[in-house]
Each structure stands twice: as structure tokens, then as C-alpha cells.
Amino acid sequence: MNPIVDGLGVKYAGRVNIVWQDVDDPATREMALKHQVRAVPTSILLDSSDQVVGYWLGWQPAEVFEEAFASLLEP
């Protein structure tokens, strides 16, 4: 997932804030618990109000995320 996430971060820089968190890191445990992360990788898409608008378990192709981003970025 890392190359996909890194590529999306470059492509959507300034429009989408992509955050990569290690669920084994005690500093990010609260977020993992809040969003009920139970598998790795888990990808969660939050809108500007921090509401979950997308939730994926397992590996996903970049196109899945790009479609989700497009729906949020449309005027």
C-alpha cells in the first residue's frame, strides 16, 4: 500500500491530506480504536468534518481511492 499512498499523496497534494499511521505505535492507538481498525491495511477516508466517508479493508488499487477523492472534491 505504501507506494500507492505515496503516489496519491503527490498527485493530490494540496487537495487531499493523506496521513499514514502505524497501528502498532502507541501514539496512534487512539485513532485506531476510534475507527475500529482490526486489519492491516485499513484505509479510512474522512471528509473535512472528520466524518468517515470511506472505509476499506485490505489492499486496494489507486483507482478506488481516486474515485472516492473525486466524489469529495467535486464542486
Number of strands: 2
Arithmetic mean of pLDDT: 92
- Quaternary state reads single chain
Secondary structure tally, helices: 3
Biggest sheet: strands side by side, in what order? 1-2
In CATH terms, what is the fold-level topology?
A: Glutaredoxin
* Estimated structural class: alpha+beta
Beta percentage is 5-15%
Order of helices and strands: HHEEH
CATH architecture: 3-Layer(aba) Sandwich
Cα radius of gyration in angstroms? 12 Å
Q: Which outline best applies?
A: globular
What are the main properties of this structure?
Glutaredoxin; 3 helices; 75 residues; single chain
Describe this structure in words.
- With 75 residues, the chain is of the alpha+beta class.
- It has one domain (2-73): Glutaredoxin (3-Layer(aba) Sandwich).
- The chain is built from three helices and two strands, in the order ααββα.
- It has helices spanning 2-11, 29-34, 62-73, and strands spanning 42-46, 52-57.
- It has a two-stranded antiparallel sheet with strand order 1-2.
